[in-house]
Design brief:
The complex is a heterodimer of chains A (278) and B (122).
Chain A: E1 2-6, H1 14-24, E2 29-32, H2 40-44, E3 47-61, H3 71-75, E4 81-84, E5 87-90, H4 100-104, E6 110-125, E7 128-135, H5 143-151, E8 159-162, H6 169-175, E9 180-185, H7 189-204, E10 208-216, H8 222-230, E11 234-239, H9 242-249, H10 258-274
Parallel strand pairs in A: 1-8, 1-9, 2-7, 2-8, 9-10, 10-11
Antiparallel strand pairs in A: 3-6, 4-5, 6-7
Chain B: E1 2-7, E2 25-30, E3 36-40, H1 50-61, E4 65-68, H2 73-81, E5 85-88, H3 94-102
Classes of the chains: A alpha/beta (278), B alpha/beta (122).
Chain lengths: 278, 122
């Protein structure tokens, strides 16, 4: 079962919930799709046994064959190409590898070359497979890293996908094949506005989903209202607790403490019971 | 000499626009004759790479200098590759900027920001 953990807002505790769920599920796979800032490995501390590069195709120009017609520059919707001093000029980090410029060039002056944009590390942490994607510094497009990361996701067993924050392309790519979407939210006004966005997203994708309220204080709970309105169950409430903050700060796992282990055990059972898919 | 200025409006009395890539207009002024033309900035609606597209239009216009508050590194790369000078704007109208340019009172723009890259994909 593939469980995607997402949140509209950053810092709500996606990684916190993901790593603790992965450990609770035992022989699971943890995939860190938050490739701009992957940090699940800080908690799971895997031993890396395999590293692979993520490469994308970008155009290269043959100046002798180019007649300066600019068809490629007009075609590029990402404005990754410019034409300066009678020569095409590529802004590689804006290129989305669509190959359009190459296809449209009537002089065949464009061919593709590979360019590295990130890497994937595979490792083990006890019985857990930990796979981490990392976008190289300065790169702008995470999707190819996430795509390659998910290509190798096992189809059996529990797979936890730690998604990037937000509700844009990178998140859509991360939840594409998931059976269940777990929405982590904090009960603040800012938290709820961002939760609304991911609720819309998972509903658009017709995903089964549930909410985890993190940093729960029981003082205000705007999430309960939204959960009722959207007909999404609240599956767990994780208290706003100094003990948890201390465990996190030293890179520890909450589930090592019986008190918190109970929360994650209950959460995992509820997700599994839901059966996944929609 | 022809210079390009991002502008809030279509007149010499219009204010200089805070944005380069997403300005609605560029005003191209011939500093010798004070004649000007207005260039609609097609990059305004671009999802990403607006700076590159806007800079391309400046290159194609034949301008030899740009006076702007801000400029991202991609746009700056395009302008520099075409040997176009990037000068720092001050709050003023386009006409006042042209006067300052003629009196050589504008300094070079040195703070090139890292841009708002993402090409609309983030």
């Amino acid at each position: 079962m593939q469980i995607a953990v997402l949140s509209g807002k950053g810092g709500t505790g996606k990684t916190f919930v993901s790593v603790n769920l992965a450990v609770t599920a035992k022989n699971s796979t943890y995939l860190d799709c938050d490739v701009e800032e992957p940090n699940g490995h800080l908690f799971l501390k895997p031993e890396i046994h395999e590293t692979e590069a993520v490469e994308i195709a970008v155009p290269e120009f043959d100046p002798d064959a180019c007649d300066g017609c600019r068809a490629c520059i007009r075609f590029c919707r990402f404005n990754a190409l410019a034409f300066i001093k009678e020569k095409p000029y590529l802004f590689a980090e804006l290129c989305h590898s669509c190959s359009g410029c190459m296809l449209i060039c009537h002089n065949h002056a464009i061919h593709e070359v590979n360019r590295r944009i990130g890497m994937i590390e595979k490792g083990k942490s006890g019985g857990i497979s930990v796979i981490t994607g990392t976008l190289d510094s300065g790169e702008a497009t995470s999707v190819p890293v996430i795509r390659q990361l998910l290509r190798d996701a096992p189809t059996e067993g529990t797979v936890i996908i730690d998604c990037p924050p937000g509700s844009s392309c990178t998140v859509m790519e991360s939840i594409r094949n998931s059976d269940f979407c777990l929405l982590v939210a904090e009960p603040t006004l800012f938290g709820i506005e961002n939760l609304k966005l991911v609720v819309q997203l998972v509903k658009t994708f017709h995903k089964k989903c549930g909410i985890v309220v993190n940093k729960d204080t029981e003082i205000v709970d705007p999430i309960k209202v939204l959960a009722n309105e959207s007909n999404i169950p609240v599956l767990a409430r994780i208290p706003y607790d100094q003990g948890l903050a201390e465990i996190n700060a030293r890179g520890g796992l909450a589930v090592e403490d019986k008190k918190y282990e109970k929360i994650f055990r209950g959460l995992l059972v509820k997700i599994e019971k839901s059966g996944g898919k929609s | 000499m022809k210079i390009a200025i991002p502008s809030e409006g279509k007149e010499l009395g219009s204010a200089v626009c805070q944005s380069f890539g997403r300005t609605i207009y560029f005003i191209l002024v011939d500093t010798d004759t004070q004649n000007f033309t207005v260039l609609d900035n097609e990059a305004t609606a671009a999802q990403g790479g607006a700076g590159i597209k806007a800079a391309q239009a400046i290159v194609d216009s034949g301008a030899e200098a740009v006076v702007t508050f801000h400029c991202g590194e991609n746009a700056a790369d395009v302008l520099k590759a075409a040997n176009i000078k990037i000068l720092k704007a001050v709050p003023a109208t386009v006409r006042e900027i042209v006067e300052k340019f003629k009196k050589d009172k504008l300094s070079e723009l040195t703070e090139i920001h890292a841009g708002y890259h993402g090409g609309g994909s983030q």
